Structures are given as structure tokens and as C-alpha cells.
């Protein structure tokens, strides 16, 4: 089989492969887009029209079959014409509202004409057959004028819609429309010249089987226009080109085959390559779309995170300003209450003294809350100053225990201490002391009456390890992940001790980490909690900041 003698078959194979790849690529990119869907419909109609048109000129021994194939060519011609009309009607939009005349008059009319051209009312019978058995002339039926009018109306109406859109579009955005118009003009010049003028005027039908190839310019130019309007992802173009080339090579083997069995086998391979290639394009498109969606979501999350950070910073600044404004009158109130308590303004009766004591306690709690809010703000904004100096950690711990001993005795608690011999470490004593103070305070506060609080300090190769072990209420397992969060208090802690801000653990942990250490805990509800605190033997690094913790 000589390739030059089967150039028409080669053209059909190449056109089928290219139209199939382009049509499915655009459709899979966004099946819900009406422009993509209409373009896909048109490519399918063109594909089948080209194949049937070629088959009609190859079936010479069965005139009746050829007549039915010719009617089928007319049917797909109607589909093509309607595809052109709708494509220009909806392009470049993703969703279009179809008017009533379109849905209830035009579409039913097209369907009716399509059905009629398949019947003998379009082509009644064969009028003349060539010596080779090919149909030369047929008796036209009454439907043929209707077919001609419908096809002409749809094509010209589509071109009118395209020109109207070009006119109403901003000049800088007209380029895709001009590409489509160029494709239409080239395609119809080729079809009219080789499929109408030459057969009708010069009795030369040699080019009729190449009909599918003549539509290729329109398909190519329209695909480019759709890509430019971002209905089709250009990143998939490489895959589409690869599939097209593989299909052409595979079909070339069909052309070069001499044996019928080999032709059938290689034709099947060609169809499989085309089919699997189309699904490969679909998979690549899905992967690209997922990656783009992921990038878009990542960008949105980054923007949301930036916005949250800004809001968090504004919140911290507000808390800092508000706390500073509150601390001044609270401090003045404290001095006034202490002045009254001394009796400088006269002696108070018993009830007056009790009221004054309650006022002092409430004022102290407010001052403590304000100080904690200030500390949180300074820690969040990295404004805490760290001034390390040689510190005796064991002496610091003993001093804190001495401070809490009256409370422990009042609750009949026993405090057990175990300390290694540890040299002084460069630490900011004020900050470390406040952190450890919180752990010891909680150990006594949430321990049970009559139980033991065990405190140890051990020296390790690179750090010291403090443990504060109580036999108290413990922390519910479901709430343990939240203990170091701001304003959080465990449910059983709120039941046991109503007072508390939920800031102590956050400040204590942040302070130890600022000093170069770590904090963690182990707890079993109803059995107790162990807090672990490490501090580096090499000491803390100095940090420049506005102020130390309040």
C-alpha cells in the first residue's frame, strides 16, 4: 500500500487525531463551561462528518450503503452548522442564559431537520453511478432546500454573532475573535472550493474525501482563542502535542501496512493510542488544576495568616496600652487603701477594717491581672529584656518554698526537697523566679490536703532538671494539649479554685523558653501532676528589650 495513493486516508487519520486531542483537551479542562462543551460538540460532529465523508467515497460496491452514508454526511453537516452557531453565540462565556426562541424554536427546528435529512425525503434515490460504482448524482427530495436554508442560516447567523461581538469588544481584547474569524474564513473557502465548486463546476471530486482536513484551520484557530481566554491550561499543551504525534506515527503504520489483518491490528492500536492519550490528557489536566487550586488555597491561607498576625498584633498593642492605663489608677488606689489601713485618717471600726481588707485584696488581684496582661503583651511582641547574672538556682527554689510554707502548713501538706550540688548559672533571676513561682504555687494550690509536694533539682550533662510533683487533682487527658494556651484553665481546676486568669502557665513556659530552657508535664486526672523544667548549664543569653516582666 503506497502512502501517496492513500493521502486522503492519511489526512483523515491526522485530522481525527488532532481534532480528537484538541476537542477532548478543551472539554476536560472544564466540562461545565458552555464554551468548552459547545466546542467539544462541534469537534465531535466534525470528526464523525470527516470519517463518514471519507467512507462514502470509499464504498463503491454497495450503492445503497453509499446513499445512507451520504445522508449521514448531511446529518453531521447540520450538527456542524449548529455547533458553529452556538459556539459564536456563547463564546467566550462560561455560562449563558439561552432565550426562549433559542430553546423552543431553534433547537427543535435543528433536531427536526437533522432527523429529516436521514430519511429518503432528503436524498430519494441514486440518479447516476460511475463505472467504479461511486455515486455521481442523486434525486434530491423536498427536504434538501430546507437543509440548505438551515445550514446557511446557522453558519451566517454564527458569523453575524461573531462580528457583533468583535464590534462590541474593546479593541485590546479583540485578538481571539479575529483568530476565530480567520479560521472560519479559511475553512469555508477550502470547503466551498474543493467540496462544492470543483465537483459541481469542473466535475472533479478527488478532493471531497479531504473534507475533514479543510475544517482543521477553524479547529486550530478556535482552540488558540479558547486558550487565550484561559479556558484551556497551556501547561497541558505539551501532553496534547505528544499524544497527537504518537497518534500520527501509529496511523502512518496503518497506511504502510499491506496485509488486511495487519491493517486491522494497527488500526486498533491507533484507536487505543488515541483513547488512552485522551484519558492521559484528562489526568494531566486534573493534576494541574489540583496543583493550581492548592497554590490558590495556600495563597489564601498565607493572606489569612498575615491578617491574623496583624489582628493579633493590634490586640496585643491594645492590651498593652489598656493595661498601662489601668495600672496607674490601681496603684494609686492601693496607696490610698494602705494609707487608710494605717489609720492616718482616723480609726476604723471592725466592719470598716474588714471592708478595707476585702478592697485591698480585690485591688491586688486587679493589679496582678494587669501585670499578667502586660507580661503576655511583652512576651508576644518580644519586648522582654533578659539580663543574666550568676544565680544560685537551689537558693532561689528554697526561697520560694519558704514563702509558700505557711500556705502548705495551713493545708497540712508536706514539702519534700531533693537538690544536687549545682554551681551558679547565668540567669535573669527575676524572670526565672516568676516562672518557678507559678509552678510551685500551682503545685500547692491544686494538691490535696494532707498530701506531699516533692521538688527536686538534678544536674545533667548540659542542663539542670527541676521537677515539681504533686498528688492533687491532675489534668484531664482531653484538656492537656491546652494547658499552656492563653486564658485556658482546666475544667477541674476551675471547680477547685474559682480564682485565676489562665495566663500563668503561658507566661511561665514562655519565660523558661526565653531563658533557653524547656517545660513539659505528665499528669493523670485524680492522681497528680509532674511539671518538668530545664535550664541550660551554660546559662541564658542576654536579650535587649524594653522592660523585664512586671
List the helices and strands and how they pair.
Layout: H1 7-29, H2 34-58, H3 63-90, H4 100-117, E1 123-129, E2 135-140, H5 143-168, H6 175-201, H7 211-214, H8 216-228, H9 237-256, H10 260-341, H11 350-380, E3 389-391, H12 393-410, E4 414-419, E5 425-427, H13 429-445, E6 452-459, E7 463-469, H14 491-496, H15 504-514, E8 518-524, E9 528-536
Parallel strand pairs: 4-6
Antiparallel strand pairs: 1-2, 3-5, 6-7, 7-9, 8-9
Helix pairs in contact: 1-2, 1-8, 1-9, 1-10, 2-3, 3-4, 3-5, 4-5, 5-6, 6-8, 9-10, 10-11, 11-15, 12-13, 13-15
Would you give an account of this structure?
This protein has 550 residues and is of the alpha+beta class. It has helices spanning 7-29, 34-58, 63-90, 100-117, 143-168, 175-201, 211-214, 216-228, 237-256, 260-341, 350-380, 393-410, 429-445, 491-496, 504-514, and strands at residues 123-129, 135-140, 389-391, 414-419, 425-427, 452-459, 463-469, 518-524, 528-536. The strands form three sheets. It has a five-stranded mixed sheet with strand order 4-6-7-9-8, with helices on one face. It has a two-stranded antiparallel ribbon with strand order 1-2. A two-stranded antiparallel sheet has the order 3-5. The longest helix has 82 residues, at 260-341. It is elongated and about 130 Å long. It starts with 6 loop residues before the first helix and ends in a 14-residue tail after the last strand.
Question: Which terms would index this structure?
Answer:
elongated; 5-stranded mixed beta sheet; 550 residues; alpha+beta; 9 strands; disordered N terminus
Amino acid at each position: 500500500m503506497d502512502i501517496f495513493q492513500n493521502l486522503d486516508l492519511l489526512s483523515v487519520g491526522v485530522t481525527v487525531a488532532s481534532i480528537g486531542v484538541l476537542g477532548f483537551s478543551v472539554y476536560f479542562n472544564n466540562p461545565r463551561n458552555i464554551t468548552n462543551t459547545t466546542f467539544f460538540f462541534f469537534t465531535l460532529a466534525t470528526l464523525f462528518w470527516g470519517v463518514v465523508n471519507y467512507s462514502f467515497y470509499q464504498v463503491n460496491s454497495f450503492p445503497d450503503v453509499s446513499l445512507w452514508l451520504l445522508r449521514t454526511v448531511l446529518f453531521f453537516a447540520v450538527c456542524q452548522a449548529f455547533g458553529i452557531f452556538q459556539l459564536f453565540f456563547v463564546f467566550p462565556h462560561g455560562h449563558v442564559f439561552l432565550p426562549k426562541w433559542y430553546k423552543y424554536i431553534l433547537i427543535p427546528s435543528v433536531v427536526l431537520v437533522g432527523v429529516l435529512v436521514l430519511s429518503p425525503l432528503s436524498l430519494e434515490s441514486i440518479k447516476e453511478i460511475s463505472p467504479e460504482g461511486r455515486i455521481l448524482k442523486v434525486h434530491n427530495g423536498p427536504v434538501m432546500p430546507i437543509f440548505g436554508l438551515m445550514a446557511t442560516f446557522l453558519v451566517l447567523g454564527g458569523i453575524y454573532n461573531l462580528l457583533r461581538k468583535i464590534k462590541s469588544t474593546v479593541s485590546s481584547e479583540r485578538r481571539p475573535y479575529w483568530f476565530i474569524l480567520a479560521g472560519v474564513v479559511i475553512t469555508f473557502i477550502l470547503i466551498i472550493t474543493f467540496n462544492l465548486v470543483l465537483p459541481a463546476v469542473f466535475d472533479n471530486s478527488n478532493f471531497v474525501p479531504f473534507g475533514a482536513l479543510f475544517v482543521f484551520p477553524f479547529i486550530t484557530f478556535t482552540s488558540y482563542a479558547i486558550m487565550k481566554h484561559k479556558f484551556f491550561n497551556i501547561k497541558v499543551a505539551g501532553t496534547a502535542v505528544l499524544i497527537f504525534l504518537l497518534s500520527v506515527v501509529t496511523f502512518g503504520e496503518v497506511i504502510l501496512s499491506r496485509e488486511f489483518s495487519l491493517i486491522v491490528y494497527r488500526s486498533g492500536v491507533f484507536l487505543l493510542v488515541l483513547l488512552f492519550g485522551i484519558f492521559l490528557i484528562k489526568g494531566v489536566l486534573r493534576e494541574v488544576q489540583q496543583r493550581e487550586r492548592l497554590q490558590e488555597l495556600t495563597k489564601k491561607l498565607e493572606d489569612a495568616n498575615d491578617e491574623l498576625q496583624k489582628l493579633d498584633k493590634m490586640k496585643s498593642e491594645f492590651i498593652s496600652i489598656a493595661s498601662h492605663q489601668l495600672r496607674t489608677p490601681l496603684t494609686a488606689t492601693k496607696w490610698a487603701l494602705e494609707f487608710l489601713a494605717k489609720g492616718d485618717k482616723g480609726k476604723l471600726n471592725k466592719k470598716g477594717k474588714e471592708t478595707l481588707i476585702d478592697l485591698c485584696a480585690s485591688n491586688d488581684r486587679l493589679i496582678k491581672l494587669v501585670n499578667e496582661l502586660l507580661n503576655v503583651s511583652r512576651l508576644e511582641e518580644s519586648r522582654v529584656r533578659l539580663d543574666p547574672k550568676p544565680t544560685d538556682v537551689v537558693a532561689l527554689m528554697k526561697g520560694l518554698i519558704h514563702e509558700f510554707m505557711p500556705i502548705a502548713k495551713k493545708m497540712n501538706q508536706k514539702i519534700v526537697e531533693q537538690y544536687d550540688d549545682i554551681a551558679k548559672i547565668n540567669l535573669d533571676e527575676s524572670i526565672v523566679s516568676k516562672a518557678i513561682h507559678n509552678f510551685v504555687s500551682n503545685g500547692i494550690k491544686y494538691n490535696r490536703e494532707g498530701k506531699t509536694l516533692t521538688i527536686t533539682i538534678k544536674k545533667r550533662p548540659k542542663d539542670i532538671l527541676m521537677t515539681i510533683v504533686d498528688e492533687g487533682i491532675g489534668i484531664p487527658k482531653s484538656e492537656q494539649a491546652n494547658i499552656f494556651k492563653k486564658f485556658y484553665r482546666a475544667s477541674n481546676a476551675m471547680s477547685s479554685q474559682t480564682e485565676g486568669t489562665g495566663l500563668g502557665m503561658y507566661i511561665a513556659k514562655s519565660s523558661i523558653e526565653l531563658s533557653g530552657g524547656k517545660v513539659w508535664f505528665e499528669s493523670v486526672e485524680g492522681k497528680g501532676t509532674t511539671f518538668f523544667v530545664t535550664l541550660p548549664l551554660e546559662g541564658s543569653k542576654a536579650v535587649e528589650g524594653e522592660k523585664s516582666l512586671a
